[in-house]
Amino acid sequence: GEYTHEVTSEDDSLSGDLTVTAADEADIEVSLSDEQGDVGDTVTFDLEAIGIGSDETIGAYDFTIEFDETALEFIDDSEAGVDFADPTANADNGTLSMNAVEPTGEDTPLILATIDFEILDDSATGPTFDATESEVTDVEGNRLEVEYQDNNLQR
């Protein structure tokens, strides 16, 4: 919401209004699981969604996930829906685009999908969400406010 407060100087000679607009609160948190692996290992990351404050029904998602392609290789056709429809995924130049639609929706908490990467180099860090290019909607197509949490890739 928006809140207005009157502000005055110490001697009351000056006054004005201060308006503060609260940031939208997230409806859900979407995260990539923390994983562990060494060079040559294939690691599976879970894409998890939980409701903040209450459960939410997810109808679709469209994620853009960034990764260092010199240190991680996306395993084609490894993406799989777990508690949600199987996603469509495309990886190119260190960007993984993936989306899925579940017409009847699924309630959080849930694992949306799993994705596999091979670790190519010791410098590998986990994949990260591009929050500006990602979105989650309810079954009516209304965009949900999302807090994205990236992961740790430990060795």
Q: Any overview of this molecule?
A:
The strands form four sheets. Strands 3, 5, 7, 8, 11 and 15 form a six-stranded mixed beta sheet that branches. Strands 6, 9, 10, 12, 13 and 14 form a six-stranded antiparallel beta sheet that branches. The chain is extended, with a radius of gyration of 20 Å. The chain contains no helices and 16 strands. It is 0% helix and 56% strand.
Question: What is the topology?
Answer:
Elements: E1 2-8, E2 15-21, E3 28-32, E4 35-36, E5 42-51, E6 57-66, E7 72-74, E8 80-81, E9 88-92, E10 95-107, E11 110-119, E12 128-129, E13 135-137, E14 143-144, E15 146-149, E16 153-154
The residue ranges in which pLDDT falls below 50 over 5 or more consecutive positions are none
State the helicity in percent bands.
under 10%
- Percent range for β-strand residues: over 45%
Order of helices and strands: EEEEEEEEEEEEEEEE
End-to-end separation: 44 Å
Radius of gyration: 20 Å
Mean pLDDT: 89
Number of strand elements: 16
Which features characterize this protein?
mainly beta, 6-stranded mixed sheet, 6-stranded antiparallel sheet, 16 strands, 0% helix, extended
Quick summary of this structure?
0% of the residues lie in helices and 56% in strands.
